[in-house]
From TrEMBL, chain B:
GO molecular function: RNA binding; structural constituent of ribosome
GO annotation terms (biological process): translation
Annotated localization: Mitochondrion
Name of the protein: Large ribosomal subunit protein uL24m
Pfam families in the cross-refs: KOW, ribosomal_L24
Principal place of residence: mitochondrion
Cellular component GO terms held in the UniProt record: mitochondrion; ribonucleoprotein complex; ribosome
SMART domains on file: KOW
SUPFAM superfamilies xref list: Translation proteins SH3-like domain
Length: 216, 216
């Protein structure tokens, strides 16, 4: 079932060899407010901590914004706890118990972000008609490539910005021969790969005459 | 270990386009011994079978149609999609020595050889005879394998999950969300962004206004 990534065992908070010796001396381990960086004491010292499945985007879409907000921080704290565990494991040169928990948490967080972004895009499209939140434009760089240039935020206008004025968003004339050579190379590559594919297909046909014309 | 070596180990294995896939996984030492970098071997032509037409799954009962163990039935252990191979458990074996050191020959062990798809036929579970199989849709809309000779449905084999979890016997841990809570719908569509909704709920009031900046 969909559960959020669960526990991580904080087994490596204290060196494993010393735990059995220290247990007789003191029972309470005060973390001074850092308890949430460590797992439930029951899971300390275990090599396998069971964990449920990560949240799926479909399940997250049914949750309200407030719930998603809370879930994000819960997941963040869990991730910090697991990372602490991982680092301690490296320090003690031991295997981290159940490292797949970290992957599950990261994936859940990515999915939460996706859902929030989806809702934001939908609202923006309704209100402004713009799909992207950050402004940008199609520009051509010095090498002849057209790309989506994302705008940056500045305190001064562009005509007062010396570093921005030094950027060139056009292709100088001396670059044209190089562009032509690049184009020729691209066409040659395409022609070669097409011939190669045709050759392999004909060879396959003669070896396996009953094969279907596959999507290659 | 050096950081670069460690990182390259953890990353996804990159194989060249004309890599000859064998029974060993590409990242193992045995595979690296057989396929050294820069070594070119004669190309193997593999009959292209579309992903949706693939009928043999791991854990199926199949019968061998030709070769040394012709007529025997066995369970599929491994499927190699790159070469249209299938490894059966304990069938089509040859013998070799394993663990040879210095003077000792090591242990004499039976190792399986892969079988091509065309030498394999799925076994109909009702009469235990080999049949041709096609993918068809049931009345519910489920896509199943139907044997052409008898018309019976061949069910998908039950394979154990890699983490050993059986979904029917799962018990939630303290950090897992229960199925009811996960599927509970709390989302009410509104024209507010997540930030606005959360600020309202938490009583945060933001009266400061953005001074204005330039985007370019």
């Amino acid at each position: 079932m969909g559960e959020r990534p669960p526990l991580a065992a904080l087994s490596l908070c204290s060196p494993v060899s010393a735990v059995s010796q220290c247990r007789a001396l003191h029972t309470t381990v005060s973390r001074r407010g850092l308890d949430q960086f460590f797992d439930h004491p029951e899971n300390w010292g275990e090599t396998n901590v069971k964990s449920g499945a990560p949240w799926t985007a479909k399940q997250l879409r049914t949750k309200s914004n407030e719930d998603l907000h809370k879930l994000w921080y819960v997941l963040l704290k869990e991730k910090n706890m697991l990372l602490t565990l991982e680092q301690e494991a490296k320090r003690q040169r031991l295997q981290m118990p159940s490292p797949e928990r970290l992957k599950k948490v990261s994936r859940s967080m990515v999915r939460v972000e996706t859902v929030v972004k989806e809702r934001e895009t939908a609202l923006r499209l309704l209100q402004t008609g713009q799909e992207k939140g950050r402004p940008g434009a199609w520009r051509r760089n010095m090498f002849g490539y057209a790309y989506w240039y994302r705008y940056k935020e500045y305190a001064i206008p562009w005509y007062m910005n010396k570093r921005y004025k030094r950027k060139r968003f056009f292709t100088p004339k001396f670059v044209q021969p190089h562009i032509r050579l690049r184009l020729e190379k691209h066409l040659r590559e395409k022609a070669r790969s097409a011939t190669l594919q045709r050759g392999t297909r004909s060879k396959l046909k003669e070896k396996f005459p009953q094969m279907k014309v596959s999507a290659s | 270990m050096r950081l670069t070596a460690l990182l390259s180990m953890a990353a996804k294995v990159v194989v060249p386009k004309d890599y000859r896939f064998g029974t060993n996984r590409p990242w193992t030492a045995a595979a690296k011994r057989l396929n050294t970098a820069g070594k070119k071997r004669r190309k193997v032509f593999v009959e292209p079978i579309a992903a949706e037409d693939w009928s043999v799954l791991k854990g199926d009962m199949v019968e061998i149609l030709s070769g040394k163990d012709k007529g025997k039935q066995g369970r599929v252990n491994q499927v190699f999609r790159h070469r249209n191979w299938v490894m059966l458990q304990g069938l089509n074996t040859h013998f070799r020595y394993i663990g040879k050191t210095g003077e000792t020959r090591g242990s004499y062990v039976a190792s399986e050889a892969p079988l091509l798809l065309k030498d394999i036929a799925l076994v109909d579970p009702s009469d235990r005879k080999p049949t041709e199989v096609e993918w068809k849709f049931t009345e519910e809309g489920e896509r199943v394998r139907v044997s052409l000779r008898t018309g019976r449905i061949i069910p998908k084999p039950v394979v154990e999950r890699r983490d050993g979890i059986v979904p029917e016997q799962w018990k939630d841990g303290p950090k897992d969300t229960s199925p009811e809570d996960t599927l509970e719908k709390t989302y009410a569509p509104s024209l507010k962004t997540l930030e606005e909704e959360v600020m309202e709920k938490m009583g945060i009031v933001e009266n400061r206004r953005h001074k204005g900046s330039y985007w370019y």
